[in-house]
Amino acid sequence: MQQPQKGKKKRFRLEIEGLRALAAFLVAVYHIWFNRVSGGVDVFFVVSGFLITTSILSMIRREGKVLVFSYIIKLLKRLIPTAWTIALLTFIASFFILPAFFKEQLFDEVIASLFYFENWRLAWDSIDYLAQNNEASPFQHYWALSIQFQFYLIWLVLFFLAFRVMKWTNGRWIGSFALPLIVVISIVSFIYSVYYTNVEQSVAYYHTFTRVWEFGVGGILAFTLNRIEWKGALAFFAGWTGVIGLLLVGIVLQVSTVFPGYAALWPVLSAVLILCAGNQGGKWSAYRFLSSKPLVSFGSISYAFYLWHWPILILYYGWTGKETVSFLAGLGIIAVATFLAYVTIHGIERPVHALNLKKSVSTALILVASLVLVTTLTMWKERTLSTAIAVSSDHPGGAVTLLDREPTYTEDPIPDLAVAAVDRSAIYDDDCINMDVDLDANRCEYGETENYRGTIALAGGSHAAHWQPMLDEIGKKHNIRITTYLKGRCRFSTTDVLGWEPCEQWMDNVLVALEQDAPDLVFTVGDISVTTYEEVPDGYIEAWKRLERANIPLLLIRDTPRYREHVVHCLDANDGDAEACRVEQRATLLEESALERVDLPSNVIDTIDITNVFCDGDYCTPIVGNIITHFDKNHLSATFSRSLAPVTEEQIVRAFERALQQK
Prior knowledge:
It is a single chain. By secondary structure, the chain is of the alpha/beta class. It has 26 helices and 10 strands.
């Protein structure tokens, strides 16, 4: 039978409520007025690790075993009422207050938040540099709750295994098995956190395993705190050092860009000092401050306050159009978040807990609610964000340049602004473009993939990728297979162009793959469309010459216009007025293409320049032929790319036929 720990009698630790309150308040203050991250979330993780470990130990002492099903149901009953209520109300408010281009993102993120994988969605967005155009989401803060939930499941597995080992070995104290396991996992997690923060900090910030050690520290305290005897001056000094440390961490460190890693030790150790000091520091101790009635009361609603403050802040930005928050407005946000948190906890969470439903009933309700939510949100998304986008007489897009005169449009431009920001090539959904540290020359196929006459390989970075919809149309019409070799943030260059060294290794792998696959023609972007250095870099030419030595022909297309701001956001802010968002042609494209100023290798069969489709000599306009040309600042929308097939078809097919004849 499980034996209880020896030590002091169990007591309610008021300083934990005060610590929660302080952490939540710091998170809000830094978000609202300083546009920074405070490190308060790391304190939540330590406290959560301490409390859940204490709870599991109590379960084992009380029941003599780990009740897996009861644990999960109790966990869901604790988290779901508040988290789901706030998420759904946030979704509804955001849908009507935030700009139209937010809607697609809202649907995806509310699902990620409701089902506790928002951290992984944000981790993916952080390496998908196209997704980095996304605005701050009203659900972004759910990343911490997602990691917390995932940790709770990890801890359940850990204690279940430790308990089974204890039973098999006739052990008497769960700590003999669980504590060493927690220590090992925490050490490994910390080492991994330090390593991965150095390698890919933006992903490490949201990664579950880079954060497990913070929870683990709390778990270790749950086993050892009763044996720690800090009194008098030591407890006084430790407690106030912890409090002051928490107050300063967000000022001294830019938490969002250096955490977790070594830097996260600061708030974690601050929380440890406070918990170790306990109530032994005397009359003027930090305990007296943290256990005061206002902080303890606020601590009881800190979970809901944390979940409310961020969406209220984002909605404030969306409603007012402001980019900063005044002191009075900030106080208003805190007051509203506090009020809503109180109502949520006392009006929803506690009444739900008081129902004391049977586990089977609770399970059924959770499953039914999940099914209803997913079904309702999916249907709402399909009705609201139609993706049935087709080029037509009302929407000729780039093909308008082939008409004798500009048609009279009877329909609004497409795509709708609600989906225009995600109207990008299928290669993203198909995972056919490397967006992380993967250096393999991954290949996908489009166009005619079975009865094809030959192959055109599309190779390069995202500015090559946005031609895939156009090539796909041409490939299907002329029985040409389109193969892709693509990587975000890279170019078709043997040398680094964008300041990211992995591109060189990836490019070398691509050239090897092209030499082995021997496509009939390689289609890629031939220059960089920024006026200050519009050019054909030496690395481009070296890559072309390497294909020349392999007798692989090339078809080069001039790069596309770049805008100063996100095209979809600009159109939304200006009621769809394309002229308000246009850019001077000389500010994005030179009059003469850089491709015309270099000596091209003999394997370059042809070059394509369709600048006239986007620009009239004076300005480049982001709506052409009643289709929005870009889904961000510098990437073509998939719809507009498809509309360009009739414009480039003759030249591409002619180059392809010539390449076949040269074989």
